[in-house]
Amino acid sequence: MPRMSASAKIQPDGEGNRIILENGEVRATYPSHAIRFSVLWKAEVRNGNPGIDHLTLDRVMEFFTADLRHRNVDLQMPSDPFSDAAWILLLQRIYVDPTDSSGTQ
Asked: 56-84, pLDDT tens digit by residue?
């Protein structure tokens, strides 16, 4: 693993690779197909505050299904979204696959 801090940046090198750059120094180079980006989104949750809509599985599913329908994506509602392979693959195809940002293939 290259030595780097949280201020390091990942960027394309113009030749189909991604470089990790910190303080003007290339710390590592990887082919683009070998890179997988993960995004961690944190939020402060305050219990008991009136007027705050807490996220539940049902609310999250409402957000996804509304967006997928807006994108005209044909979908089957999963009975268990955490283990339904077809649902998980659909979300990956729509929200993760960089080759199809429109949501339609």
From this structure: 888 889 999 999 999 999 999 999 999 99
Residue spans of the domains in the chain: they are: 1-37, 46-105
Are 52 and 59 in contact by the 8 Å Cβ rule? The answer is: no
Cα–Cα distance for residue pair 104/86, rounded to 1 Å? 16
* pLDDT recorded at residue 46: 61
- DSSP SS3 for 4: coil
Largest CA distance in the chain: 53
> What pTM did the predictor assign?
0.47
Confidence label for 101 from pLDDT (cuts 50, 70 and 90): very low
Nearest to 74 by CA among 99, 100, 103: 103
- Pairwise CA distance, residues 31 & 15, whole Å: 9
End-to-end CA distance of the chain: 36
